[in-house]
Design brief:
- 2 copies of one chain form a homodimer.
- The first copy, chain A, is of the alpha/beta class.
- The first copy, chain A, is globular and about 75 Å long.
- The N terminus and C terminus of chain A are likely disordered.
- In chain A, the strands form 2 sheets. Chain A has a 7-stranded mixed beta sheet, with helices on both faces.
- The first copy, chain A, is about 40% helix and about 10% strand.
- Chains A, B: This is Serine decarboxylase.
- Chains A, B: Its cofactor is pyridoxal 5'-phosphate.
- Chains A, B: Keywords: Decarboxylase, Lyase, Pyridoxal phosphate.
Chain lengths: ~400, ~400
């Protein structure tokens, strides 16, 4: 996956980026303090340079960094700094406009318009913990959050009084949560995920100290159920926790949920011996609108579904939705450590603006356009790796 | 902790809330669809009702929920719904103003003014993964993020080329990360945390399947180093991972970092046998400005420090900062699973607006006011539990 990403990174993105306007000189104002507005030399200079990017974790390279200005007793200096900050922001905005125009390669829906939400931007809105448990902090948007959750529960056919969920910070949090719920339901369960699953799935396995079996994929990128079966047979004594991809990041492959369930059944795994988490980071939301696509529904024996909010719905900040069965969260709540924590989310504090955006963008005119946008988005995504 | 929280919840918050304006009728417009704008009856009706709140995890109670409106073929209906949404938002804004005015009980700094940032609000800014590794997604704010991180590294006296960190979604993510780094450095380490530590610390222990020793506290809420010593002596054979509180959520207690280190040394734990994570959700940022406060610095043998950005600095969305030693992240990177993930953060996608707010709010005039605000904020926090 990392390799695919790299091949792509050198190519598509840079070649499509137009140079910034000619009168744009990022170093013009305060030379000493000012690094390039955008990180990539290729863009700032208006030329295309192809270079291999090294991926070295734990490097701490200050390729681009805007210093936090320190207080100064001298008012004149302070005034200059104020002007400096204003100019940095103005130029940053300009670069965002350019980059947003040409951010080909990521399946983001940037078709959002939220004029009506602008009035709420300066409030510090925080949805603390469980969306269904009241908190002391009054400046929240739980009423919008629960409305959005209801909408998704309906989409995936889970009754209002049978689901639990929350608006996450991103698709990764959805995966981290879904797999954690699976592990809490089956503490000795083994995690099965196809090799083309998002990296957060394997990160979860490591974080949670779970045994993990990487399953082969078909050429299409779908999970290879023959290999899945073989691996299940090796561990018949332990419950199975399965990550099913509803759209992999690299090939946009959709695992055959029905075949996965059938394989489990054929191998002797009864419904009380497995937990399926559907990573629908992008397609989980589109699938119901695409004809003949494998259906994601809680009428099938699945445990949780997560999607990214910022990708298909379009939202100015990363966010996602996680829906699971209420019974699983009830199982967690019998655990005293979890009770003490008063919430079963991963993050304690959650951005209260995200539910507002989702609530607002899931409005009739936009939802009506989903079916027509789905195939187009789906094609855009193919062969591109998107972040979760 | 939960009990303290409850005692407080019934009292301070509600009694200080003024009723909404008399002409404000939340049910006036579309009666069927519209729940109260604020969850709590006590406020909407302009009366104070005290009631015990039950804390039951896994309940799915729709006390307040704003439905997502569905598409409708009838244009007239669509028009009405548009008007409905606009009115819901307008009234929501009104309730936010009220609640923001009277949100006593949470140590949030709401003294922010970010006029200059308004121009950036509609961009979908996403800092994917490691702040120091370039990503394909161009619409990011890494250059601001790294600037903020540099500032914090300087505050806690860690050299620019010796730290690693990132802007988190909240204090909880900082704790989850710090403790995970500790566990990766010492896989068989035991987690020690005082009973008054934030619940995310114990959540981490459970998530990461770590053995955890809850240490007693003094009356002040500080960790009891006598008990700490006794518990250390029980597990001399295993490394120690310690969560040190720089301001507990309930009593605002600051663990004596120096005494914790001394206790470790006296018990025979050499510096290569322990890892200290400092949970400075709120005070980690204030302490350097408060005279005679215990100093948080990487010149002492600590492994990581985290703070909440939205509390003291003031920021319209939850966020935080996590700083650790580069050498620890390098240790992680030698692990192949981590390498594959290309980033050592917990969440893959991160809100790119948060770094902009932090960068902007850490400007001279505001930083200059920190010392004078610190004692005041510190007092406000005492005896109140804040979210992380």
């Amino acid at each position: 996956m990392a390799r695919n990403f790299e091949v792509f990174s050198g190519e598509v993105n840079l070649e499509k980026v137009e140079p910034l306007p000619e009168d744009f000189d990022p170093t013009a104002i305060i030379k000493d303090l000012l690094p390039p507005v955008v990180c990539n030399d290729a863009i700032v200079n208006g030329k295309e340079k192809k270079k291999e990017r090294e991926i070295v974790l734990g490097r701490n390279v200050h390729t681009a960094c805007l210093e936090v200005t320190e207080p100064d007793a001298d008012d004149e200096v302070t005034g200059e700094r104020e002007a400096y900050m204003a100019s940095v922001l103005a130029r940053y905005r300009k670069s965002l406009i350019e980059r947003t125009k040409h951010h080909l390669g990521y399946p983001y829906n940037l078709d959002f318009d939220y004029g009506a939400l602008a009035q709420l931007q300066h409030f510090s809105i925080n949805n603390l913990g469980d969306p269904f448990i009241e908190s002391n902090y009054g400046v929240h948007s739980r009423q919008f959050e629960v409305g959005v959750l209801d909408w998704f529960a309906r989409l995936w056919e889970l009754e209002k009084n049978e689901y639990w969920g929350y608006i996450t910070n991103c698709g990764t949090e959805g995966n981290l949560h879904g797999i954690l719920v699976g592990r809490e339901v089956y503490p000795d369960g083994i995690l099965y995920a196809s090799a083309e699953s998002h990296y957060s799935v394997f990160k979860a396995a490591r974080m949670y100290r779970m045994e993990c079996e990487k399953v082969k994929t078909l050429l299409s990128g779908e999970i290879d159920c023959e290999d899945f079966k073989a691996k299940l047979l090796l561990h018949k004594d332990k419950p199975a926790i399965i990550n099913v991809n509803i759209g992999t990041t690299v090939k946009g492959a959709v695992d055959d949920l029905d075949l996965v369930i059938q394989t489990l059944e054929e191998t002797g795994f009864t419904h009380d011996r497995f937990y399926i988490h559907c990573d629908g980071a992008l397609f989980g939301l589109m699938m119901p609108f695409v004809k003949r696509a494998p259906k994601v529904t809680f009428k099938k024996p699945i445990g949780s579904v997560s999607v990214s909010g910022h990708k298909f719905v379009g939202c100015p900040m990363p966010c996602g939705v996680q829906i699971t069965r209420l019974e699983h969260i009830n199982a967690l709540s019998r655990n005293v450590e979890y009770l003490a924590s008063r919430d079963a989310t991963i993050m304690g504090s959650r951005n209260g603006h995200a539910p507002l955006f989702l609530w607002y963008t899931l409005k009739p005119e936009r939802v009506q356009r989903f079916p027509e946008r789905s195939p187009e988005m789906s094609q855009e995504c193919t062969l591109l790796e998107g972040p979760s």
